[in-house]
Amino acid sequence: MTFGSYLRSAWPTAAILCVASLLTCMVLEVSGTGAPLLSLVACVLIGSSVLLLVVDYLRKRAFACELDSLADQQGHALWASELIDRPDFIEGQLAYDALCAVSKAANDEVAGYRRQTNDYREYVETWVHEAKSPLAAAHLMIENIEDELSAVGEDPIDEEVLFSRVRALDEELDRMEGYVEQALFYARSEAVERDYLIREYNLKELVSAALRANSRMLISARVAPFRRNLDYQVFTDEKWMLFIFGQIIQNSVKYARDEGASIEFSACLRDEGLATERVELSIRDNGCGVSAADLPRVFEKGFTGAAGRSGKRSTGIGLYLVKRLCDKMGVGIDADSVAGEGFTVILSFSTNRFHYFE
């Protein structure tokens, strides 16, 4: 900042000082003050005015020069408040405080986007690693089927073995399809509000549709589904809710017991007649469950718990994505479990439709 540019911005102050000095000299002259004293007073007034402007310029010059240099270096814009000192004049202090607030907001937003980018990159890396497994298994099964068919002329074909391999191949393709669907919903979860439509649905019909979509997986794992007291109307989006149900079902299948496995959907109305009235849907299985120490972390990204570390194929993404989508849609979610006895996910649907138009 040059002194000339400063004077252009401070011209009201300079004009007032000039007018005040001129009026003072005129009053002294009218009152009969002698020329020597009048000249001395004029010099003092003019000198004081110039000195005042110079001192004010020097106080503000350092701060202005620092701002100018930061404006030319765009890479340091986010850290501007850390690279300059807080000035001692009121205008600069107000500008500095505003700059700090803007910098903090910008840094928080940039950090949020970086965190989302890192999370998505980590998820893609995990997804690629997990997707290799069903693809490799599918290729191996196709080779075995080809070997069976090529040997038809030599030995009679065992249709039961062939059908079992085809079914196993179908299961691996279902796994692959599930991974692809999960990746699509993970990508869309960044902006759920642009891809969902809240309507009134019958809870029993939603649960039945989710069970049908995952029936082959349930049958293969010998998991018996049960529906109890589901005749409630809830406000939600069908597509996203079916995906959420599917992830919970798949998680239950993954940790199902070998014999007598089951999954139960049951609902009840809570706080009837109050502003907090809601329909609670409990999805309960009788699998291995999680320990009390692991329970608070089941919705964390990448968390698999003791069961996931003991040989089960788990990425720790399913329940994390379920929690993320529920939060974005305003659906309450909680979990309960007893190790060795089962795991329960509780979804809460508000019956106040205005909740979805906030």
UniProtKB/TrEMBL annotation:
Membrane topology value: Multi-pass membrane protein
Subcellular location: Cell membrane
Reactions listed under catalytic activity: ATP + protein L-histidine = ADP + protein N-phospho-L-histidine
Pfam families: HATPase_c
Ranges that cross the membrane: 12-31, 37-58
Database matches in PROSITE patterns: HIS_KIN
Gene Ontology cellular component terms for the protein in this record: plasma membrane
UniProt keyword annotation of Kinase present: yes
UniProt-listed Enzyme Commission number(s): 2.7.13.3
Annotated GO biological process: cellular response to phosphate starvation
Source organism, top-level taxon: Bacteria
Keyword Cell membrane tagged: yes
Domain Histidine kinase positions: 126-353
GO molecular function ontology, one term from the record: phosphoprotein phosphatase activity
Protein name: Sensor-like histidine kinase SenX3
